[in-house]
Specification:
Blueprint: E1 7-12, H1 21-35, E2 40-43, H2 53-59, E3 63-70, E4 76-84, E5 87-91, H3 92-96, H4 114-125, E6 130-134, H5 145-150, E7 154-156, E8 175-177, E9 189-193, H6 206-210, H7 218-239, H8 251-263, E10 266-268, H9 270-278, H10 280-284, E11 289-293, E12 296-297, H11 299-302, H12 306-315, E13 321-325, E14 327-328, H13 332-337, E15 342-345, H14 346-349, H15 353-358, H16 360-375, H17 383-388
Parallel strand pairs: 1-2, 1-11, 5-6, 6-9, 9-10, 11-13, 12-14, 13-15
Antiparallel strand pairs: 3-4, 4-5, 7-8
Protein backbone atom coordinates (compact mmCIF):
# COMPACT_ATOMS: atom_id res chain seq x y z
CA UNK A 1 0.00 0.00 0.00
CA UNK A 2 1.51 3.39 -0.97
CA UNK A 3 2.33 5.70 1.92
CA UNK A 4 0.27 8.85 2.45
CA UNK A 5 1.65 11.96 0.79
CA UNK A 6 3.10 14.73 2.92
CA UNK A 7 0.35 17.34 3.32
CA UNK A 8 1.01 21.08 3.74
CA UNK A 9 -1.64 23.68 4.45
CA UNK A 10 -0.55 27.09 3.10
CA UNK A 11 -2.25 30.02 4.86
CA UNK A 12 -0.53 33.37 4.27
CA UNK A 13 -1.91 36.87 4.63
CA UNK A 14 -1.03 39.51 2.02
CA UNK A 15 2.49 40.85 1.56
CA UNK A 16 1.40 44.48 1.61
CA UNK A 17 2.51 46.38 -1.46
CA UNK A 18 3.76 43.23 -3.18
CA UNK A 19 1.39 40.25 -3.14
CA UNK A 20 -2.20 39.53 -2.27
CA UNK A 21 -2.77 36.61 0.07
CA UNK A 22 -3.95 34.55 -2.91
CA UNK A 23 -0.76 35.36 -4.85
CA UNK A 24 1.42 34.61 -1.84
CA UNK A 25 -0.25 31.23 -1.34
CA UNK A 26 0.31 30.38 -4.98
CA UNK A 27 3.99 31.33 -4.85
CA UNK A 28 4.57 29.22 -1.73
CA UNK A 29 2.78 26.26 -3.28
CA UNK A 30 4.94 26.52 -6.41
CA UNK A 31 8.15 26.42 -4.41
CA UNK A 32 7.05 23.50 -2.25
CA UNK A 33 6.13 21.46 -5.33
CA UNK A 34 9.52 22.14 -6.90
CA UNK A 35 11.18 20.68 -3.84
CA UNK A 36 8.74 17.80 -3.22
CA UNK A 37 6.96 16.91 -6.48
CA UNK A 38 4.46 14.58 -4.81
CA UNK A 39 3.62 16.89 -1.91
CA UNK A 40 -0.06 17.55 -1.28
CA UNK A 41 -0.49 21.32 -0.97
CA UNK A 42 -3.76 22.91 0.13
CA UNK A 43 -3.89 26.70 -0.19
CA UNK A 44 -6.15 28.70 2.10
CA UNK A 45 -5.28 32.42 1.96
CA UNK A 46 -6.30 34.33 5.08
CA UNK A 47 -6.70 37.88 6.37
CA UNK A 48 -7.30 39.60 9.68
CA UNK A 49 -10.13 41.93 8.74
CA UNK A 50 -8.11 44.51 6.83
CA UNK A 51 -7.50 44.91 3.11
CA UNK A 52 -7.75 41.58 1.31
CA UNK A 53 -10.31 40.02 3.63
CA UNK A 54 -13.01 39.75 0.97
CA UNK A 55 -10.56 38.30 -1.57
CA UNK A 56 -9.42 35.70 0.96
CA UNK A 57 -12.91 34.38 1.64
CA UNK A 58 -13.85 34.47 -2.05
CA UNK A 59 -10.86 32.20 -2.72
CA UNK A 60 -12.34 29.83 -0.13
CA UNK A 61 -15.60 29.54 -2.02
CA UNK A 62 -17.70 32.56 -1.14
CA UNK A 63 -19.62 34.31 -3.87
CA UNK A 64 -18.73 37.87 -4.81
CA UNK A 65 -21.19 40.75 -5.20
CA UNK A 66 -20.43 44.26 -6.36
CA UNK A 67 -22.56 47.33 -5.70
CA UNK A 68 -22.21 51.05 -6.30
CA UNK A 69 -22.02 53.02 -3.06
CA UNK A 70 -21.00 56.44 -1.81
CA UNK A 71 -17.26 56.89 -1.40
CA UNK A 72 -15.66 58.67 1.57
CA UNK A 73 -15.92 62.10 -0.09
CA UNK A 74 -19.26 61.58 -1.79
CA UNK A 75 -18.21 60.25 -5.18
CA UNK A 76 -19.73 56.91 -6.26
CA UNK A 77 -17.44 53.88 -5.99
CA UNK A 78 -17.88 50.22 -6.87
CA UNK A 79 -17.47 48.14 -3.71
CA UNK A 80 -17.63 44.39 -3.31
CA UNK A 81 -18.53 41.95 -0.58
CA UNK A 82 -18.49 38.19 -0.19
CA UNK A 83 -21.42 35.98 0.77
CA UNK A 84 -22.01 32.28 1.34
CA UNK A 85 -25.14 30.91 2.91
CA UNK A 86 -26.27 33.48 5.44
CA UNK A 87 -22.80 34.90 6.14
CA UNK A 88 -21.52 38.03 4.39
CA UNK A 89 -17.97 39.35 4.72
CA UNK A 90 -17.43 43.07 4.17
CA UNK A 91 -14.39 45.34 4.23
CA UNK A 92 -14.96 48.88 5.37
CA UNK A 93 -12.03 49.87 3.14
CA UNK A 94 -14.03 48.82 0.07
CA UNK A 95 -16.52 51.62 0.56
CA UNK A 96 -14.89 54.11 2.94
CA UNK A 97 -11.18 53.41 2.68
CA UNK A 98 -8.15 55.57 2.08
CA UNK A 99 -7.75 53.93 -1.31
CA UNK A 100 -11.19 55.27 -2.28
CA UNK A 101 -10.19 58.91 -1.89
CA UNK A 102 -10.19 60.64 -5.29
CA UNK A 103 -6.61 61.37 -6.20
CA UNK A 104 -5.57 60.28 -2.72
CA UNK A 105 -6.69 63.66 -1.32
CA UNK A 106 -7.26 63.24 2.40
CA UNK A 107 -10.40 64.63 4.03
CA UNK A 108 -10.02 64.13 7.78
CA UNK A 109 -12.90 66.39 8.87
CA UNK A 110 -15.50 65.50 6.25
CA UNK A 111 -14.88 61.89 5.11
CA UNK A 112 -17.96 59.73 5.65
CA UNK A 113 -18.80 56.09 6.31
CA UNK A 114 -22.09 56.43 4.42
CA UNK A 115 -20.93 53.93 1.80
CA UNK A 116 -20.19 51.34 4.48
CA UNK A 117 -23.82 51.61 5.56
CA UNK A 118 -24.93 51.14 1.95
CA UNK A 119 -22.69 48.08 1.70
CA UNK A 120 -24.28 46.63 4.85
CA UNK A 121 -27.73 47.25 3.38
CA UNK A 122 -26.71 45.45 0.18
CA UNK A 123 -25.55 42.44 2.19
CA UNK A 124 -28.89 42.36 4.00
CA UNK A 125 -30.66 42.60 0.62
CA UNK A 126 -28.63 39.56 -0.46
CA UNK A 127 -29.95 37.54 2.49
CA UNK A 128 -27.19 37.89 5.06
CA UNK A 129 -28.13 36.88 8.60
CA UNK A 130 -24.57 37.44 9.84
CA UNK A 131 -22.27 40.22 8.69
CA UNK A 132 -18.55 40.13 9.41
CA UNK A 133 -17.27 43.67 8.98
CA UNK A 134 -13.53 44.24 8.65
CA UNK A 135 -12.56 47.65 9.98
CA UNK A 136 -9.09 48.23 8.52
CA UNK A 137 -7.98 50.94 6.13
CA UNK A 138 -10.66 53.57 6.70
CA UNK A 139 -10.35 57.19 5.57
CA UNK A 140 -12.90 58.38 8.13
CA UNK A 141 -13.21 59.69 11.68
CA UNK A 142 -16.98 60.12 11.85
CA UNK A 143 -17.88 57.65 14.60
CA UNK A 144 -19.78 55.53 12.10
CA UNK A 145 -22.35 58.30 11.83
CA UNK A 146 -22.49 58.18 8.03
CA UNK A 147 -22.99 54.42 8.18
CA UNK A 148 -25.91 54.93 10.56
CA UNK A 149 -27.47 57.58 8.33
CA UNK A 150 -27.31 55.26 5.32
CA UNK A 151 -29.25 52.68 7.33
CA UNK A 152 -32.03 55.07 8.29
CA UNK A 153 -30.82 56.84 11.46
CA UNK A 154 -31.41 60.60 11.55
CA UNK A 155 -28.74 62.75 13.17
CA UNK A 156 -30.24 66.17 13.70
CA UNK A 157 -28.68 69.56 14.42
CA UNK A 158 -30.26 72.19 16.72
CA UNK A 159 -32.47 73.39 13.83
CA UNK A 160 -33.78 69.87 13.18
CA UNK A 161 -31.81 69.50 9.95
CA UNK A 162 -29.77 66.42 9.06
CA UNK A 163 -26.07 66.71 9.88
CA UNK A 164 -23.64 67.07 7.02
CA UNK A 165 -20.99 64.43 6.40
CA UNK A 166 -17.88 63.85 8.46
CA UNK A 167 -16.63 63.79 11.99
CA UNK A 168 -16.35 67.54 12.50
CA UNK A 169 -20.11 67.92 11.91
CA UNK A 170 -20.84 65.80 14.99
CA UNK A 171 -20.10 68.86 17.13
CA UNK A 172 -23.52 70.18 16.03
CA UNK A 173 -25.43 66.99 16.86
CA UNK A 174 -28.51 67.75 18.93
CA UNK A 175 -30.73 64.67 18.66
CA UNK A 176 -30.57 61.08 17.40
CA UNK A 177 -33.69 59.56 15.86
CA UNK A 178 -33.46 55.79 15.28
CA UNK A 179 -37.12 55.28 14.35
CA UNK A 180 -36.18 54.90 10.69
CA UNK A 181 -33.39 52.37 11.23
CA UNK A 182 -33.82 49.46 8.80
CA UNK A 183 -35.89 46.98 10.85
CA UNK A 184 -34.24 43.99 9.17
CA UNK A 185 -31.05 44.76 11.07
CA UNK A 186 -32.68 43.54 14.28
CA UNK A 187 -32.41 40.03 12.82
CA UNK A 188 -28.81 40.36 11.61
CA UNK A 189 -25.77 39.61 13.77
CA UNK A 190 -23.00 42.12 13.06
CA UNK A 191 -19.50 41.09 14.11
CA UNK A 192 -16.57 43.47 13.87
CA UNK A 193 -13.31 41.91 12.73
CA UNK A 194 -10.95 44.06 14.76
CA UNK A 195 -8.08 43.65 17.17
CA UNK A 196 -8.03 47.34 18.10
CA UNK A 197 -8.91 48.17 21.69
CA UNK A 198 -8.62 51.97 21.46
CA UNK A 199 -11.37 53.95 23.16
CA UNK A 200 -13.43 56.43 21.18
CA UNK A 201 -11.82 59.59 22.59
CA UNK A 202 -8.84 60.84 24.54
CA UNK A 203 -5.08 60.46 23.99
CA UNK A 204 -5.51 56.85 22.85
CA UNK A 205 -8.74 57.51 20.97
CA UNK A 206 -9.77 57.41 17.33
CA UNK A 207 -8.78 60.98 16.46
CA UNK A 208 -5.51 61.16 18.39
CA UNK A 209 -4.08 57.81 17.30
CA UNK A 210 -5.43 57.33 13.80
CA UNK A 211 -6.45 60.84 12.71
CA UNK A 212 -2.95 61.87 11.58
CA UNK A 213 -2.82 58.85 9.24
CA UNK A 214 -5.94 60.26 7.60
CA UNK A 215 -4.56 63.75 7.18
CA UNK A 216 -5.61 65.35 10.47
CA UNK A 217 -3.43 68.18 11.77
CA UNK A 218 -3.04 68.76 15.51
CA UNK A 219 -5.89 71.27 15.29
CA UNK A 220 -8.03 68.78 13.34
CA UNK A 221 -7.38 66.10 15.96
CA UNK A 222 -8.65 68.43 18.69
CA UNK A 223 -11.78 69.28 16.67
CA UNK A 224 -12.51 65.62 15.91
CA UNK A 225 -11.87 64.42 19.45
CA UNK A 226 -14.25 67.01 20.88
CA UNK A 227 -16.87 66.18 18.24
CA UNK A 228 -16.63 62.45 18.98
CA UNK A 229 -16.93 63.14 22.72
CA UNK A 230 -20.09 65.15 22.06
CA UNK A 231 -21.40 62.35 19.83
CA UNK A 232 -20.76 59.80 22.60
CA UNK A 233 -22.72 61.94 25.04
CA UNK A 234 -25.68 62.13 22.66
CA UNK A 235 -25.56 58.38 22.06
CA UNK A 236 -25.63 57.70 25.79
CA UNK A 237 -28.48 60.15 26.37
CA UNK A 238 -30.67 59.06 23.43
CA UNK A 239 -29.82 55.35 23.11
CA UNK A 240 -28.53 54.43 26.56
CA UNK A 241 -25.28 53.04 25.18
CA UNK A 242 -22.04 54.24 26.85
CA UNK A 243 -19.78 53.90 23.82
CA UNK A 244 -17.08 56.07 25.34
CA UNK A 245 -16.35 53.33 27.87
CA UNK A 246 -16.15 50.37 25.49
CA UNK A 247 -12.67 49.16 24.41
CA UNK A 248 -12.46 49.06 20.62
CA UNK A 249 -15.03 51.82 20.10
CA UNK A 250 -12.27 53.90 18.52
CA UNK A 251 -11.61 51.38 15.75
CA UNK A 252 -11.77 52.76 12.20
CA UNK A 253 -12.28 56.36 13.22
CA UNK A 254 -14.94 55.45 15.74
CA UNK A 255 -16.92 53.20 13.41
CA UNK A 256 -16.62 50.63 16.18
CA UNK A 257 -18.68 52.96 18.38
CA UNK A 258 -21.32 53.48 15.70
CA UNK A 259 -21.64 49.76 15.02
CA UNK A 260 -21.93 49.00 18.73
CA UNK A 261 -24.54 51.71 19.30
CA UNK A 262 -26.73 51.40 16.20
CA UNK A 263 -26.25 47.79 15.08
CA UNK A 264 -25.77 45.96 18.37
CA UNK A 265 -22.45 44.72 17.03
CA UNK A 266 -19.68 43.04 18.98
CA UNK A 267 -15.99 42.70 18.16
CA UNK A 268 -13.93 39.54 17.80
CA UNK A 269 -10.37 38.77 16.76
CA UNK A 270 -10.14 39.50 13.05
CA UNK A 271 -8.04 36.47 12.19
CA UNK A 272 -10.19 34.22 14.37
CA UNK A 273 -13.31 35.28 12.51
CA UNK A 274 -11.72 34.78 9.10
CA UNK A 275 -10.32 31.36 10.02
CA UNK A 276 -13.84 30.32 10.92
CA UNK A 277 -15.27 31.85 7.75
CA UNK A 278 -12.85 30.04 5.43
CA UNK A 279 -13.13 26.68 7.16
CA UNK A 280 -9.62 26.50 8.59
CA UNK A 281 -10.38 23.72 11.08
CA UNK A 282 -11.60 21.39 8.36
CA UNK A 283 -8.67 22.17 6.08
CA UNK A 284 -6.24 21.56 8.92
CA UNK A 285 -7.37 17.97 9.41
CA UNK A 286 -4.61 15.63 8.24
CA UNK A 287 -2.04 18.37 7.66
CA UNK A 288 1.58 17.58 8.49
CA UNK A 289 2.69 21.22 8.37
CA UNK A 290 1.18 24.69 8.13
CA UNK A 291 3.00 27.45 6.29
CA UNK A 292 1.84 30.98 7.00
CA UNK A 293 3.31 34.41 6.34
CA UNK A 294 2.89 38.13 5.69
CA UNK A 295 4.92 41.07 4.49
CA UNK A 296 6.48 41.96 7.84
CA UNK A 297 6.47 39.74 10.89
CA UNK A 298 7.12 42.17 13.73
CA UNK A 299 6.01 43.19 17.21
CA UNK A 300 2.64 44.29 15.87
CA UNK A 301 2.14 40.83 14.40
CA UNK A 302 2.61 39.27 17.82
CA UNK A 303 -0.41 41.21 19.08
CA UNK A 304 -2.71 39.01 17.01
CA UNK A 305 -2.14 39.46 13.29
CA UNK A 306 -2.88 36.68 10.82
CA UNK A 307 0.27 34.51 11.11
CA UNK A 308 0.00 34.42 14.90
CA UNK A 309 -3.69 33.54 14.73
CA UNK A 310 -2.95 30.74 12.27
CA UNK A 311 -0.13 29.47 14.48
CA UNK A 312 -2.30 29.49 17.60
CA UNK A 313 -5.04 27.48 15.91
CA UNK A 314 -2.66 24.96 14.34
CA UNK A 315 -0.36 24.45 17.29
CA UNK A 316 -3.39 23.91 19.55
CA UNK A 317 -3.94 20.60 17.74
CA UNK A 318 -0.25 19.72 17.44
CA UNK A 319 0.41 20.74 13.82
CA UNK A 320 3.78 22.52 13.41
CA UNK A 321 3.84 25.97 11.84
CA UNK A 322 6.51 27.70 9.77
CA UNK A 323 6.34 31.32 8.60
CA UNK A 324 7.70 32.68 5.31
CA UNK A 325 7.70 36.47 5.38
CA UNK A 326 9.04 39.51 3.64
CA UNK A 327 10.87 40.90 6.64
CA UNK A 328 11.46 39.24 10.01
CA UNK A 329 11.78 41.53 13.02
CA UNK A 330 11.20 39.25 16.00
CA UNK A 331 13.41 36.70 17.72
CA UNK A 332 13.22 32.92 17.63
CA UNK A 333 12.16 32.97 21.28
CA UNK A 334 9.24 35.27 20.43
CA UNK A 335 8.27 33.06 17.50
CA UNK A 336 8.25 29.92 19.62
CA UNK A 337 6.13 31.66 22.24
CA UNK A 338 3.31 32.16 19.71
CA UNK A 339 3.57 28.70 18.18
CA UNK A 340 5.76 29.36 15.15
CA UNK A 341 8.54 26.78 14.91
CA UNK A 342 10.74 28.79 12.56
CA UNK A 343 10.61 31.64 10.07
CA UNK A 344 12.52 32.76 6.99
CA UNK A 345 12.41 36.07 5.15
CA UNK A 346 12.72 37.25 1.57
CA UNK A 347 15.44 39.66 2.72
CA UNK A 348 17.64 36.63 3.41
CA UNK A 349 17.62 35.96 -0.34
CA UNK A 350 17.53 39.59 -1.52
CA UNK A 351 18.75 42.20 1.00
CA UNK A 352 17.62 45.15 -1.14
CA UNK A 353 14.11 45.87 0.17
CA UNK A 354 12.89 47.53 -3.03
CA UNK A 355 14.04 44.58 -5.13
CA UNK A 356 12.55 42.10 -2.66
CA UNK A 357 9.20 43.86 -2.87
CA UNK A 358 9.35 44.00 -6.65
CA UNK A 359 10.33 40.36 -7.05
CA UNK A 360 8.35 39.03 -4.09
CA UNK A 361 6.60 36.21 -5.96
CA UNK A 362 9.69 34.42 -7.36
CA UNK A 363 11.63 35.05 -4.16
CA UNK A 364 8.82 33.61 -2.07
CA UNK A 365 8.76 30.53 -4.30
CA UNK A 366 12.51 30.16 -3.83
CA UNK A 367 12.12 30.51 -0.07
CA UNK A 368 9.39 27.86 -0.07
CA UNK A 369 11.54 25.57 -2.19
CA UNK A 370 14.35 25.94 0.32
CA UNK A 371 11.93 25.02 3.08
CA UNK A 372 10.66 22.07 1.07
CA UNK A 373 14.15 20.66 0.67
CA UNK A 374 14.46 20.47 4.45
CA UNK A 375 11.24 18.45 4.53
CA UNK A 376 11.82 16.14 1.59
CA UNK A 377 12.94 12.60 2.49
CA UNK A 378 16.35 11.57 1.14
CA UNK A 379 16.17 9.61 -2.14
CA UNK A 380 15.77 5.86 -1.62
CA UNK A 381 19.04 3.93 -1.82
CA UNK A 382 19.38 1.79 -4.94
CA UNK A 383 18.62 -1.81 -3.92
CA UNK A 384 21.12 -3.36 -6.39
CA UNK A 385 23.90 -1.08 -5.20
CA UNK A 386 23.13 -2.01 -1.60
CA UNK A 387 23.26 -5.69 -2.37
CA UNK A 388 26.61 -5.51 -4.13
CA UNK A 389 28.20 -3.01 -1.79
CA UNK A 390 28.33 -0.28 -4.48
Amino acid sequence: MPSRRFRVLVCPDKFKGSLTAVEAAGAIATGLRRAIPDVEVVTLPVADGGDGTVAAVVSAGYGYRQVRVTGPTGEPVDAGFAIRGGTAVLEMAEASGLRRLPGGRLAPLTATTYGTGELIAAAVDAGAAEIILGLGGSATTDGGSGMAQALGVRLLDPDGAELSAGGAALARLSRIDVSGLDPRLARVAVVLASDVDNPLTGPNGAAAVYGPQKGASAEDVAVLDAALAHFAGCVQRDLGVAVSEIPGAGAAGGTGAGALAFLGAHAESGIGLILRAVGFTGALAGADLVVTGEGSLDEQSLAGKAPVGVAAAASAVGVPVVALVGRLQVSAVELHAVGIRSAAALLELEPDLAVAQRDAAPLLSDLAERLGRTLAPPPAEDDTASATGH
